[in-house]
Amino acid sequence: MMIQEYTALETIDLLLRDRAKILATTQAAGDRDVMPMLRTMVATIAICMAIVGAALGTYRGGVQIAYAAVKLPLVLLGTAALSAPALTAIGVALGRKPRFAADLALVLSALAFGALLLAACTPLILLGRSIDLDYHRMILCTVAMFGIAGIAALRMIASGLAGEDALGWRAAFAGLCIVFTLVGGQLSWALRPYLVRPRAPEAPFVREVEGSLFDAVTQALDSARGIYTREAAPVPSRSEP
Amino acid sequence: MSVAIDTPSPLPRGFGLAAAALAPAAIGGILATQFAAVTPVAVTPAIVLGVIAATSPALYIALAATGEAPRVPAVARAIAVALAAFGIALTGFVLPATFLSLTSISAVTSIVIATVALGGAAVLGMRRLARELVLESLSAWVVFAVWSIATLGIAGRLWWDLARELV
After folding, report:
1. Which chain A residues have a beta carbon less than 8 Å from that of B104?
2. In this prediction, does ipTM exceed 0.85?
């Protein structure tokens, strides 16, 4: 069955109702056949994550709504673009047929599914804002929502690779998970903040470059052991709320 | 007896072998950018290819000595396929590794990222080599394990020396 038979909305409906069919189509399709699906998935991710970003931005309001709506789609699409080649490369190294477009379609379909789940969580984010849920609880709720969506997306990728039953699919999946975690973590770290305290006087588009997520974790571990690399912690100015 | 299998490679082997030389140079390029030194661009592929060239005869001799006696062309083919697999896997890691290194301000982070990329590709290459050689007996597996540890150990030591020199 060719994916061209479905409109974009039908493809999204299939993604929600019958993912096995989407996976079967991806496996059977050639590189050109998956192009309409790639376009649909990219658009789905962009729109859904913009909605989720805007919802997160409402926690502070103002320009942060637009900033988060622009940044969240970039994080997901950028991570897919940087990570999908690794899936193909590991698979080919272990004897799998090279299918870059199909692998990209699989990764984007899974991320689009995750993005749809997150979009479905938007009312919960808005509920948190409307009941003035405190900042740290809001962060925890957001992490939980993204965690659930991430697990669902990874499960879909695992099902797609297992269905192929190709050599080394488990190693390819494990490798993708590692690359995806590192790249996704770093890209989202570089483009933060998404959720800003309502009292914050300014909402920067991105924070100053403070190194990577790995650098931050290393520094936190050092600080926990009493090893400090600066004279003193930065003191907030009196004018700041 | 171990016999190199004859499954067709999913990509032309020439492409994989070219990748085995170029991808380590690209990983070296990440360090070259971070440390403003061109040495890693040449030294990284030299470590990979040099260590494989130096240790692969030992693998053949040891397998033959334990009664597992594949023919030389079969072992050479298996090593070429595994080297190509290493190159292709590393090619897939170049883009994420470059991104992770460029967005880091710590030199140590860049070294860790490059090490993980090279190590991951090396493990995948070793796994492919084991499959290509179709190791059957316990003694063949022991020989292969010892050879793998020695090869990774030598390459790791040379890589460590390069990293220390850069830092």
Report:
1. 211-212, 214-215
2. no
Instruction: Answer whether B85 touches A (CB < 8 Å).
Output: yes
Q: How confident is the model over A110-159, as pLDDT tens digits?
A: 999 999 999 999 999 999 988 988 888 998 999 999 999 999 999 999 99
Residue B2 included in any domain: no
Interface contacts A/B by beta carbons within 8 Å: 93
Q: Do B92 and A90 touch (CB under 8 A)?
A: yes
Domain count, chain B: 1
Q: How far apart are CA A58 and CA A72, in angstroms?
A: 14
Whether residue B106 and residue A96 make contact (CB cut-off 8 A), yes or no, is: no
Residue B73 sits in which domain range? 13-164
* A38 contact B CB<8A: no
Instruction: Please tell me if residue B36 touches chain A, with a CB cutoff of 8 Å.
Output: no
pTM for this entry: 0.79
- B93 reaches A (C-beta below 8 A): yes
Q: Specify the pLDDT at position A209.
A: 67
Instruction: Check A98 against B10: CB less than 8 A apart.
Output: yes
Dump pLDDT digits (tens) for B112-167.
999 999 999 999 999 999 999 888 889 889 999 999 999 999 999 999 999 998 88
Helices (H) and strands (E) in chain A, counts: 9, 0
Tokens 């050109």 correspond to A32
Residues of chain A with C-beta less than 8 angstroms from the C-beta of B92 = 85-90, 93
Instruction: Please state the domain extents for chain A.
Output: 3-224
Report CB contact under 8 Å: B124, A94: yes
Q: Which residue has the higher pLDDT, A82 or A237?
A: A82
How far apart CA A213 and CA B100 sit, in angstroms, is 9
**Orientation angle between helical segments A100-120 and A35-57, nearest 10 degrees:** 30
Residue B92 forms part of a structural domain: yes
Q: Looking at chain A, how many residues does it have?
A: 241
Q: Which of A209, A193, A192, A81 is nearest to B104 (CA)?
A: A209
Collapsed DSSP state (helix, strand, coil) of residue A228: coil
A3: DSSP letter: G
Q: Please answer yes or no on whether A186 and B127 come within 8 Å at the CB atom.
A: no
DSSP A226: T
B6 inside domain: no
